[in-house]
Amino acid sequence: MLTVNKLIPQGRGLANVLLKRAASVELDWDTRQKSRFDAHDSAGRHIGVFLARGQVVRGGDVLVVEDGSLVRVIAAPQDVLVVRACAEHGSPFDLLRAAYHLGNRHVQLELQADHLKLEPDHVLADMLRQMHLIVSSEASAFEPEGGAYAAGGHGHAHGPAHDHSHDHANGHAHDHPHDHGHAHAHTPAAAPSRGKPLGIAVQAAAVPHVHGPGCGHDHGPAHGHDHGHDHGHDHDHGHDHGHGHGHKHT
C-alpha cells in the first residue's frame, strides 16, 4: 500500500500536462469527508490516505503519493435529493427558507444558485414538499458546504499593499509613512531633564538633537512621548517629530 499524506487543493500550481498524466480515484462524499481512508486508483494501486484531522477531500483535489506521483480526485455520482423552487406557486426565496430550516437540523447541504442538494431522507423530503418546493431524486456529485470554520474554508492572503489602519494616541500629530516588510526601528524619545542642572555646558548636535542641561530651553516632565505600537508584522516607521526650540514647555 502506498501512503498519501499531502493534498493540493484543486491542483493549484500544477501544470495541466501533469494533471492529465496523473492517475485518478473516484470517491463519494461519505469517503471524502474522512481524513483517513483506503482506496484504489485508476492504475490499480492501493493507496492509504492519512491527512490532517478534520481535512476533507473535494472533487478536483490532487493527492500526492509518497513516491511523488499524483492522483486526481473525482467526486463520484451518488444518490441525492435535489430541491428547486416552484416557478408556478413559489419564488426563489423559498430556497433560502428551506436552507434555513435544514441548517437548523444540521443537515449537510450543497448550495447552488437555483437548487439545493442533500443526502436522501424521506422525512425531510416530505417537509420540503409541504413548503411548496420541488424535490427530486438524482445521481450526481455531492459537495456540501464545509462551514465557516472548516479547515481551508477561507484563504485570505494579505499582500504588501494590504492597508492596515494604526491609531496612535499622542498629544500632537505625527505623520507615519509605513514601509511593510522591513525591520521595525524606533528612535527612542529623549528623556526630559530632571533634578538640579549640573552647570556643565553641552554642545547640542545638529542631527539628531540631543537635549542637555545647556541646550538653551527647558523641557518639563509633561513633554514625554509614549508611543505604543503593537503590530502583528514588521513595519518601518519613520517618525518625524518637528519641535520648535527656543520656547518653554510647562
TrEMBL record:
Q: Which GO terms describe its molecular function?
A: nickel cation binding; unfolded protein binding
Where is this chain's protein located in or outside the cell? Cytoplasm
Its source organism is: Sphaerotilus mobilis
Sorted UniProt keywords? Chaperone, Cytoplasm, Nickel
Family note: Belongs to the UreE family.
Compositional bias annotation for Basic and acidic residues? 160-182, 216-243
Which Pfam families does this one have?
UreE_C, UreE_N
Q: Where is the UreE urease accessory N-terminal domain?
A: 7-71
Give yes or no: UniProt keyword Cytoplasm: yes
List this protein's GO terms for biological process: protein folding; protein-containing complex assembly; urea metabolic process
SMART domains according to UniProt: UreE_N
Residues covered by region (Disordered): 145-195, 209-250
Please give the name of this protein. Urease accessory protein UreE
Summarizing the function annotation, the protein's role is: Involved in urease metallocenter assembly. Binds nickel. Probably functions as a nickel donor during metallocenter assembly.
- Supply one GO CC term from the record: cytoplasm
